[in-house]
Amino acid sequence: MTIPLAVPDAGVGHDPWWVILIKVLFIFVFLVVLTLFNIWWERRVVARMQHRIGPNVHGPFGLLQSLADGVKLMLKEDLMPKGVDRLVFVLAPAIVAVPAFLTFAVIPFGPTVRIPWTDTYTRLQLTDLPVSVLYVMAVASIGIYGIVLGGWSSNSTYSLLGGLRSSAQMISYEVGMGLALVTVFLFAGSMSTSEIVAAQSHQTVHWFGAAIPLPGWYAFLLFPSFVIYVISMVGETNRAPFDLPEAEGELVAGFLTEYSSIKYAMFFLAEYINMATVSALATTLFLGGWRAPWPISLWDGANSGYWPVLWFMGKLMGFIFFYIWLRGTLPRLRYDQFMKLGWKILIPISLAWILLVATVRAVGRETNFSRTTLLVAAAVVLVIAVVSMFVPQKPKDEDKPEVADGKEFDAFAGGFPVPPPLAGTAGRSETDIRSKEGSRG
Predict the structure, then answer these.
(1) What is the count of structural domains for the chain?
(2) 305 in Cβ contact with 124 (< 8 Å)
(3) Is residue 317 part of a domain?
(4) Which one is predicted more confidently, 388 or 169?
(5) Which domain holds residue 326?
(6) pLDDT grade, residue 441 (50/70/90)?
(7) Looking at the domain assignment, is residue 421 inside a domain?
(8) Is residue 407 part of a domain?
């Protein structure tokens, strides 16, 4: 249904109380149902990738399997190990779950619509803020406290290590995620989610005197930022291949080791809601939000009425499928590789890209060059710099281990791996080496 032009835009914050209540209930029910569906969908997709059947017993196509698992967890015995901090142990799951629901308050699902059977118009968004994106990142960061406190209060070494890993992981990839969004703020001129969606409505590129219409999505215009955000959002949500806080091969189940019953379920509920949150934020900031993709956007009514909700959900589920595809495809990274990716690759690239984008905008205002042309040139420079980081370098001669008696050092000669001898110690006994090191001390 197309809204008449005479009807003004119903801005957020001016809705009647009953409309606000409907929106709050809708977001809560939507996130719970979406979580149940995503669990089922993940099990079905991974089963398909591994040539298995997956859930197919409870309900049509096994759709009620997630609901059955939730009921089972609620009815299971709630165990509490000895020596735990009872108050913190009980509050930790709630600290994780509650912020997960709050983040969707500023996500726009669609434009202004008329509520059926009434004459009331409202925007399909609970509320909006001048700093909506910062609100999402701040509230989402609160959930990490629940994971850290849950691991600390469990009185278990595995749980504590999982909580510490999670805190380090959040710090590392929250920085990369925030830097990836700076360029979006520079181009949109706002941190409001609704204004960022409006800024991506269209984009015309002037290339050698010809006007070329392109989708206004920042995923194309700011492609490096989009890639960095996608990698960071997977690390932020502790999902494979970055699920180091609950690595079952190393830490049993990480911070979840001592939890059971409904507390265990709340941690998983928060994880899947956070997946939907960062996916919705990526849709809003980089894929035009609720606006229809091309060529559907050629239809006049594509971006009016309730149709935009369908486009928004399609983009959101595309990111959820990306999550599932990663889990069924890639192995888990080592922790040192994971930290190196965040601190030595993503963050430096983000800083360099921000500098290039800011320079392009400044040069574009002062000269007659097209900002899009300059931006493409900046992206090419960035790609060349990134590729040069991965070019293997020839090791220097002094980096090679010293050889004794003209024979090359073999680390496995005695059956066990040993480090190479220190420089200048080849052919000397271990007693002589230790005595000389002790004299230096």
Answers:
(1) 1
(2) no
(3) yes
(4) 169
(5) 17-389
(6) very low
(7) no
(8) no
